[in-house]
Amino acid sequence: MLGYHGVNVHGSESRNKSMIVHIKNPFEHAKPEDLAKKMIGKRIFVGWPFLQEGQVVAVSDSLFKYEKMVVAPGSPARVVSNPHAPQGLSHWKAKAERIETYYSKRCGVITGNVDILLHVRPLKGLKRLESGAFVKDYEGPNKETEQAVQMCLSEVVSEDPRFLEREAPPLSEEFPDGSKVFFLGEHAYGVAAQVASTTDTTLSVILAFFPSEKAENDKFKTIVANRKAIPYYPSFRAADLVGISGRALGKITSSFMVITSDNQKTNLGLSLKFEAKALKVIDYSRKEGRNWDYSQKTIDLLNEYKEKFPEIFRILDKNGDAMMKASEVFPGPDPDGKVKEVKNWLKSKGVRDFEPVSLFCDQLTKETVAEIEALADTFTKNKSSTSIKKAIVKGIPRQAVLKPSHAVYRLQNQHFALGDRVTMVQDSGGVPLSVKGVVIGLNAKSMDVVWDVPFMSGVTLGDRCSQYRGSTVEFNTCLNLTNPQFVTSTNPKAPPPVRNQVPFKPRFGPHPAINPQPGQLPAAGFRPAPQTNQPGRVHIMANPNRGGRGHPNGRGGPPHVSHAQPIVAPALQTENNEAAQQKAPPTAFTNGNHVPAPMLSRGLNPRGRGGFVPGFRGGRGSGSNGDRGRGAPRGGFRGRGRGSFATPLPS
User: Gly residues composition bias: which ranges (predicted)?
Assistant: First the structure.
């Protein structure tokens, strides 16, 4: 339909007519529970007009979220409705309005009222099963999205051929004779092999390995384990050990710029931390939470620096962030020469060779990497082609070997640590196939490896290793030999092994803990409110001097006091009642005259509504004994007034 709609594509609404598309909702009168039974667990295409495949995991309306779950063990899964959390009600409405507004103003599509949302997890790709079949793999809860049900399609005319599920191919086709593979058996794990022959269900491979390789792997791990443990101190403790303030410590460990007479800027700081760039120096500084920690190496370097050039540390607490002149730091005759002397001293201590790395990674030092390289060179020099042993293994299943092209599918969720011995199992990339190395650095999504032999595309990893020996690779390109995690039985009838389903996500450095709303997941899912077995009682604040019916104090009365003695102000109570009566303040005023309150019969004080007792803040009608003025014993004065009253004078 052509009409004025104000479609906004390039930042401003259109003032001309636009072609508007109206969507007819085929699920307009459908119940959410019926849609949940029909769609949950099925694939769906979302993001119209640019369709993307996903899987429906839940259905929600403005009040409930419908999920399929197993209620009792052994019973089939059924649809369960969970009410939204209190904050989820407005969240759901805002999400529905946002979807409707986006299609209306951005795409020129009238979707109608969005009453039902589908919770969809997008397609991530294909994963290979142990049987060799490829099935679809969907994202986790953290990437779950919500889509209007009328904007989703259950099928398309032409599907993407890259993501079509495939059955396991025959062994002779997947592993032709002579193809290179890696053996995953318990013995000789990770050894390079070659396919000799295949049958319908099994295959035979020829292994080639050095018998001493298993013992070599443990020696590399020993070098990392025997590293000298360096203690770290928080910033306030480090400042106390050096004898300076925390402000001075922050300046000298970062950048401290000084301007010489020729307007040249010179950094006299140690450059151990970079807050804005989120960088640290291995073995010198680190950040835990919001605070910086410094090692014993940093403390020793600062003490030596302070002893050598105390003038710098005396000026660090000066107010202001402006760069200081050399004459202000060194008031002597030759300040520029002093700055040059400090610069040369820092260079002699290796400060300018410090390599800043990310806060969110863990790495080995240059000294440890040099030891690893020397040990690898020793092992390589002692090996020769005559010491290679060969063995043939027959009748093993297909999951007992790893094809290089299958590494990206099968080596998921593999865990690594510093010093682990690895071998390259991917036949694409710059690192040669089956070359071994040692992990010297762990990043968020990759790791740094120093390899046993140099190769053309190798780097120095920031001068941490020799030329052409290092590279940064992904986790699924290498096989961990120190910590075998994909060991498979060579018996064809054995069940497939249970793989690790926990993703490897190394977390180093400061990561603030962001908790989701109560009863909800971080992925903006609408979850039920938290259920508690014993809900806390609601306590209403009450005036302790205000009683209720049946309460000893009565309504508006002060705390109950024994009839044996009169009530006096608490601050004036003494052991002697007579002295207390003489010093007690008046309880009423009559024409400006203070009239003392005498003792009445049976030791009772006047009572009634409107009575006043010093030292107490009661409600209306505060009586001395908490009585409401009705049914008082004989001799008691019964007042009805709401204001102050005076007791009659004795005749």
Answer: 608-638
For 396-445, the pLDDT digits (tens) are: 999 999 999 999 888 988 999 999 999 999 988 899 999 999 999 998 88
User: In angstroms, what is the C-alpha Rg of the chain?
Assistant: 41
Assess whether pLDDT exceeds 50 at residue 388: yes
Dist. CA 614–CA 568, nearest whole Å: 7
Most confident residue range from 178-187, 218-227, 545-554, 619-628: 178-187
Q: What pTM value is reported for the model? A: 0.63
The 3 state secondary structure assigned to 268-310 is CCCCCEECCCCEEECCCEEEECCEEEEEHHHHHHHHHHHHHCH
Identify the three-state secondary structure at position 353: helix
Peptide bond into 528 cis (omega under 30): no
Q: How far is CA 147 from CA 48, 95, 119, 525, in A?
A: 10, 9, 7, 13
Residue whose pair of structure tokens reads 């410094």 in the numeric block:
294
**Mean pLDDT (whole number) for 262-283:** 88
Q: Which residues lie below 8 Å from residue 221, measured CB to CB, with a gap of 6+? A: 419, 420, 421, 482
pLDDT at 211: 86
Which CA distances in Å does 411 have to 332, 466, 482? 65, 29, 15
Strand partners, 148: 117
Per domain, the residue ranges of the chain are 2-151, 179-223+364-480, 232-362
Residue 641 pLDDT greater than 70, yes or no: no
Max Cα–Cα distance, the chain, nearest Å: 134
Give φ, ψ of 41 to 5 degrees: 90, -10
Q: Do domains 2-151 and 179-223+364-480 have the same CATH topology?
A: no
Q: Cβ distance 459 to 398 under 8 Å?
A: no
The tokens describing 145, both together, are: 């999205």
The tokens for 476 are: 């699924």
CA 462 to chain centre: 30
Give the list of residues 6+ apart from residue 426 with CB closer than 8 angstroms, or none: 404, 407, 408, 433, 476, 477, 478
Classify residue 359 as exposed, middle or buried by CB count within 10 Å of its CB (0-12, 13-18, 19+): buried
* Among 102, 105, 101, 110, residue whose Cα is nearest residue 21: 110
User: Which residues, 6 or more positions from 282, have their beta carbon under 8 angstroms from its beta carbon?
Assistant: 355, 357, 363, 364, 365
Question: Angle CA(75)–CA(76)–CA(78) in degrees, nearest 5?
Answer: 115
Residue 128 has a pLDDT of 85
Which of 137, 131, 201 minimizes the C-alpha distance to 165?
Answer: 137
- Which CATH architecture best describes the domain 2-151? Beta Complex (2.170)
Q: Which two tokens stand for residue 569?
A: 């102000």
The two counts, helices (H) then strands (E), for the chain are: 13, 35
Q: Can you tell me the distance from the alpha carbon of 175 to that of 194, in angstroms, rounded to the nearest whole number?
A: 10
> How far, in Å, CA of 425 to CA of 407, rounded?
7
How many angstroms separate the CA atoms of 327 and 402, rounded?
Answer: 68
| CATH class of the domain defined by 179-223+364-480 | mainly beta
**Range of weakest confidence among 58-62, 318-322, 371-375:** 318-322
